[in-house]
Design brief:
Layout: H1 3-13, H2 22-35, H3 40-54, H4 59-74, H5 90-119
Helix pairs in contact: 2-3, 2-4, 3-4
Length: about 120
């Protein structure tokens, strides 16, 4: 059974007379998952379907709504999994940055020593 067959069976089971564009829904769910939150994919697809059903929207209207939703997800200001600004630990971030700068300095010293050894 493929996805299209699953959608047909699910529509029959739910007594829904609808054609779902599985490619559009899959792409939209993936974009929401990647840009917003892992759970945003299925929630986004559900809410798009709910809105389409509430408006008795045809395929063209669903595509327009999906385009708006996609634009929102792509413009989302925090990548998936990012901490809320109030949850960010800036002190720890500063400590990590300092440690990384220190490692860069060590790498530079090692490279300088290797260059000196190569000249000898």
């Amino acid at each position: 059974m493929n996805l299209h067959d699953w959608i047909d069976e699910l529509c029959d089971l739910l007594d829904v007379d609808s054609e779902a564009d599985e490619s559009l829904l899959g792409d939209l769910a993936e974009i929401a998952h990647d840009n917003v939150h892992p759970a945003a994919g299925p929630v986004t697809a559900f809410l798009l379907g709910f809105a389409a059903g509430a408006r008795d929207a045809g395929p063209d209207a669903v595509e327009r709504m999906a385009a708006k939703v996609q634009a929102l997800a792509e413009a989302w200001d925090r990548p998936a999994g990012a901490a809320e600004p109030q949850d960010a630990d800036t002190e720890a971030d500063d400590e990590v940055d300092e440690d990384l700068r220190h490692l860069d300095e060590i790498d530079e010293d090692v490279e300088a020593d290797e260059d000196e050894d190569a000249l000898v």
